[in-house]
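Retro notes (design track)

What went well: tokenization of the new backbones is finally stable.
What didn't: we kept losing track of which sequence belonged to which structure.
Fix going forward: every design gets posted as structure first, then sequence, in one message. First example under the new rule, 346 residues:
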């Protein structure tokens, strides 16, 4: 009997150890950068000094150039435009170096490099495939390249319009803003063909969805025309239902909070908030940062309602990031790389 009890105890301990080991593997840290904010630093044009910084909100510490830190000093490249996370992989789009670096988002170990692209801008996924916007060349129609997410090879290119820029996936459709025009291309992900073109205001950029499942796009306006706009689109009919015009040009960066009832954008060193039910642009900003030189990136961590705004500091040196609550009250600020233009909340 003693031997039977001993064997049972040994098996119980082994099972408990296995359970704890599995639990630690499943729920423990996946890497040094698996719980924080990744800051995309564009870098100076032709300088090759684009980077990604990691900010830990719990300790308020920043680690600079984590790609170079992990990959033996390898430079990320010239004009780091954007980054999109797909599972445990991050697709970092490097515009002027004509490539996309694929890394493990938790460790930032380099995994693959996608080449044979021309002035790439943004990456998205739909229907188990990757989609990459490319300007291609100034004066030529832009395109969206279809990427195999397993082999990281380009399987098809879809011609859109001049300056293919931001994307938003809604169901089996991808909406693509053509930044050098006044059009949005609609791609069906089943056929990977353009199935519709929507006319909006000049220079469309970033998209968001509101609480009524309506699509909003921010339009910068024609060069020096002071005709920026926020445009709302009905997704069922794929047509414009509301246009709110401005008497100035706008940066083509747009965000929303967890409620999806407000739009956030910036001009100069002020951030504005507009209700999606509004018919006129707000006259007063939500906040103004007097210590900033000029905002260059904006996003909101919907998990805690913190606004992140990047200040490029005129690209004269390292930038800064300012954080605020949704009511516009200041939280803190931290140092970033050169030209912070976007954020990924990992």
């Amino acid at each position: 009997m003693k031997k039977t009890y001993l064997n049972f105890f040994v098996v119980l301990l082994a099972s408990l150890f296995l359970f704890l080991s599995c639990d630690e593997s499943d729920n423990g840290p996946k890497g040094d950068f698996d719980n924080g904010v990744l800051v995309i630093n564009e870098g100076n044009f032709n300088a090759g000094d684009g980077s990604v910084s990691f900010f830990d909100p719990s300790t308020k510490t920043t680690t600079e150039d984590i790609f170079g830190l992990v990959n033996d000093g390898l430079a990320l490249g010239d004009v780091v435009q954007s980054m999109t996370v797909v599972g445990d992989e991050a697709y970092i789009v490097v515009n002027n170096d004509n490539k996309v670096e694929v890394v493990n988002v938790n460790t930032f170990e380099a995994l693959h490099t996608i080449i044979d692209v021309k002035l790439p801008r943004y990456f998205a996924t739909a229907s188990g495939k990757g989609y990459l916007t490319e300007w291609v060349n100034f004066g030529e129609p832009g395109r969206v390249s279809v990427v195999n997410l397993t082999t990281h090879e380009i399987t098809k290119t879809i011609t859109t319009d001049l300056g293919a820029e931001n994307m938003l996936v809604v169901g089996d459709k991808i909406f693509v803003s053509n930044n050098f025009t006044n059009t949005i291309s609609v791609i069906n992900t089943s056929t990977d063909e353009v199935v519709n073109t929507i006319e909006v205001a000049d220079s469309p950029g970033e998209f968001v969805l509101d609480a009524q499942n309506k699509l909003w796009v921010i339009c910068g306006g024609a060069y020096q025309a002071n005709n920026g706009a926020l445009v709302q689109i009905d997704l069922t009919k794929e047509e414009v239902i509301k246009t709110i015009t401005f008497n100035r040009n706008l940066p083509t960066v747009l965000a929303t909070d967890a409620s999806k009832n407000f739009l956030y954008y910036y001009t100069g060193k002020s951030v504005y908030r507009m209700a999606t039910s509004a018919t006129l642009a707000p006259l007063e900003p939500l906040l103004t940062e007097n210590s900033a030189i000029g905002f260059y990136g904006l996003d909101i961590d919907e998990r805690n309602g913190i606004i992140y705004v990047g200040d490029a500091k005129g690209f004269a040196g390292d930038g800064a990031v300012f954080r605020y609550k949704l009511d516009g009250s200041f939280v803190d600020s931290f140092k970033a790389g050169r030209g912070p233009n976007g954020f990924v909340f990992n």
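Added context from the reviewer: Helices lie at 2-27, 66-70.
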